[in-house]
Each structure stands twice: as structure tokens, then as C-alpha cells.
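This entry is listed below:
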Amino acid sequence: MNDNRRYDDISVVRDFRGQYKAARHRRQRGAPHAVPEPVIRKFRSIIYDYYRKHKRDFPWRRTEDPYHILVSEIMLQQTQTGRVAEKFVEFIVTFPTVESLAAAPLSRVLSTWQGMGYNRRARYLRDLAEVLASEHGGRIPDDPGLLAKLPGIGRATAASICAFAFNRPVVFIETNIRTVFIHFFFNERKDVEDRDIILLAEAALDRKDPRAWYSALMDYGAMLKQRHPNPSRKSAHHQTQKRFEGSRRQIRGIVLRVLLKNRGVTAKRLSKIIGRPERELMPVIDELVREGMIRKKGRALDVE
């Protein structure tokens, strides 16, 4: 990966916006959201030029194994790439196939997952592996509709798996892709709807190599976020991340981490280990039991 500090994104984007604005003024008829092909070609060339010089290297980009890519996409849903890069290889070494993950106890999956946060994703991964092993012969479907029915996979994740694992020309947006389109095409607007971005994403999609195109878009978006106040704040769907310290999510993670090391403890003992009142932990414990993350046997608590 080359140093991108000398890349002049300000001049590049300013010139593009001027070309785009002029093209819109010249356009007298046609669909209101249509973008002239020369503008689309220019946009693609900017994104690919940057990618060729400054593309990021991740272990999931060095494989076309659908299972490995599925795991990476679940990990990347709510975790930064740096942390995923550290954990991805360990997870794949521990669970190298769909079948090995499907057969693993949840406690082992959660132990391997520690440090990633949002532990429900580990449960979803194990559950979807069971479905893949029992209903799909251990194979990853290349159909976004089928993938979206699996635990923990929504429409955007299903599409991204198809793009990166099978090079399918599907259309989707995620945070970095959204950032790029807002920065280039909607810099003068607020509350940009995803439906407007989707129209541009479909027009700009490199249907010959969607895998490379989406990687290039994501890398450009990551660079923009480092240099500018997050353009995604102009999205109508932007949500500010809630504070983690002292949150219910933090307590859930602590409870699971302690139970993985202290199997079969009571809620009273758990509260002493964690240093929080039992009455504060009980709602979290009950929630984790309902979700199938932990189980009660008498007064003893354990990971499923």
C-alpha cells in the first residue's frame, strides 16, 4: 500500500464537480437523476486511478473463497478494518470450513471472537454455518435473495458477499461507498436519500469487475473520511454512534467475557467479579438468555 498523503483529492474533486455541474446545466431533457456517460467515465477513472496507486491490502482481498469472504463481511459490519484484519486470520485458522464452524460449540466461537464487539454476530455466524451445512451442502449461495435469508445477513451484506466472492454485478451501498457518492455528487445537499445514491451507484457500477470497483470505492471513501468531516453526515440515514463506555452493550460484553472464563458461576458471584450490582446485571443476563447466548441451569450461568 503506497502513502496517499500527496494525493490531491481537493483539486481532483473540485474539477469533477465543475464538469458535473456543467453537464447538468447542458442537459435539457431526460430523467432528472440521469448522469451523462462522460461524467460517469470520469468518475470511474478518478476512483480507479487512486486505487491503482493507493489500494489497501487486507487478508480477505487475497482470497476468492466464498466462506472466507462471508466471514469477513460479517466481521466488517460494525467493526473497523484494522481490528478485523487482526482477528480474521485467527478465526479462519480456527474454523477453516463451514462445517468446522457449524460443529463448534458457541463458547469456542465466542472465545475466538473476543475483541471484535457485537458478540451476536458470532452467534449469527455459527447459526448460518449450521444452515449452510445442513441445507446447502456447505456451499455459499451466489444469490443475494438466498443469502439475505441467512441469520445475520441483510440485503446489503448479501449483495457485498456476491460482489466480492462471486464478482456478481450487484448494486449496494455501505458507509464508505455512501461517503464517496455524497462527496462527489451531493456536496451542496443535506439529508441525501439512499435511493438517490443507488441510482448513481447503478450507473457507475463496473459490471466487468464489480469486485475491484467496490474495493476501489471503499478505499476512496476511507481516505475521504480521514481528510474531511465525515461526508456521510449529509445522509438522511446518518446515525451518531452511541457512547460505548457504561452502555448496555459494554456490560453485555463484560458478562460474556467473564462467563467464558468462569463457567457455571451464579449471578451473585458474577456481580462480585465484575464489580457491578446484581440488580444491574440481571436485565442483561435475562436478555442474553432470551437470545440464546447464555443459559441458566438452576442458579448457575454458562455460555451456550
